[in-house]
Amino acid sequence: MADIRIAEAESRVYRAPLDTPVQTSFGIMRDRPMVLLLLRASDGVTGLGEVWYNFPAEGADYKSRLFASVVAPSLMARAFADPGEAAEYLDARVATLAIQCGEPGPFSCLLAAVDQALCDIAAQREGVALWRWLGAGKAGACARLCQRTNPTAPEALAAARLDEGYAAFKLKIGFSTDRDRRNLDGLQQLLRDDAALMVDANQAWTLEQAREALCWLSDYGLRWLEEPMRADLPARDWEALARDGSVPLAAGGWRLARTCCGSRIFARPFWEMRCP
User: Fold this and answer.
1) CA quadruple 183, 184, 186, 192: dihedral positive or negative?
2) Minimal CA–CA distance to 237: which of 225, 246, 228?
3) According to the model, what pLDDT value does residue 19 have?
4) Are strands 273-274 and 196-200 parallel, antiparallel or unpaired?
5) pTM of the model
6) Which residues on neighbouring strands pair with residue 273, listed in sequence order?
7) C-alpha to C-alpha distances, 154 to 11, 148, 222, nearest whole angstrom
8) Which of 76, 87, 79, 74 is nearest to 39 (CA)?
9) Whole-angstrom Cα distance, residue 213 to residue 229?
10) What is the DSSP string of the chain?
11) Which pLDDT score, from 0 to 100, does residue 98 have?
12) How many CB atoms lie within 10 A of CB 187?
């Protein structure tokens, strides 16, 4: 494959207003921001990458400006044999800056989006679907997931989505035990036996609080408990929590996925994946 040289690099910020704000344990989201990177190679092929973002809303604009001022010039400075070479080069280029400003997170999100866009370009050049270029064996059917099930009257939203054909529901928890259990009881009574139910605490608890929650969450047959604690806690804390309960755990980050192999822990970079 010919080298990839990026001729144009653009970031765009979009916002979708929400009729019903998203309530989480850490705050309320009144719109859904999206930061997209558009990378156009010298041969005209354009790749797209999404910069992870959701809260607080103002940070989306910051990441867009950070890409334009720091990452894009480095990306366009030279050609790369493949996306992997670009990832190593950019990671080295921004490492000191991330330490200097104390913000490794925004840089990591931007580099991940660049990697997506470069892989998109590589797949298009070879004339194959991105999932196949990435090595997946086959395209499988995906159940639709209703993941914005707020803690306020969740049964009403779930009932409407059931009628639309949704088969999986993720409830926001981490507010209070009484409120969380009341919502789960209501959903469990409403949903069909074949419907999947998950919960997301949005990093609400300490390790001990998460252990206490697992004691009663195990009654609901959950597919997983997402982010019960801070996602950056040591792997040993996550492994200890996984041993304490029967509910599979979900957390963010490749580092956790690499260090927790063998335990019942998921990782969520941009899609749900089971730890190998």
Assistant:
1) positive
2) 228
3) 76
4) unpaired
5) 0.63
6) 267
7) 35, 9, 16
8) 76
9) 11
10) -PPB-EEEEEEEEEEEEEEEEEEETTEEEEEEEEEEEEEEETTS-EEEEEE---SSTTHHHHHHHHIIIIIHHHHTTS-BSSHHHHHHHHHHHHHHHHHHHT-HHHHHHHHHHHHHHHHHHHHHHHTS-HHHHTT-S-------EEEEE-SSSHHHHHHHHHHTT--EEEEE--S-HHHHHHHHHHHHHHS-TT-EEEEE-TT---HHHHHHHHHHHGGG--S-EE-SS-TTS-HHHHHHHHHH-SS-EEE--HHHHHHSTTSSEEE-SSS-EE--
11) 87
12) 21
In this predicted structure, the answer to whether residue 254 has a pLDDT above a threshold of 70 is: no
Q: Are strands 196-200 and 168-172 parallel, antiparallel or unpaired?
A: parallel
- Tokens 């790369």 map to which residue? 80
| pLDDT at res. 37 | 96
Structure tokens at 51: 């910069």
- Residues 204-217 have pLDDT tens digits of 999 999 999 999 99
Residue type, 272: E
C-alpha dihedral (224, 254, 206, 211), degrees to nearest 10? 40
Higher pLDDT, 253 or 148: 148
Place of tokens 């970031």: 11
Q: 77, 79, 33: which is closest to 53 by C-alpha?
A: 33
Identify whether the C-beta of residue 265 lies closer than 8 Å to the C-beta of residue 252.
Answer: no
Q: Which two tokens stand for residue 93?
A: 């280029």
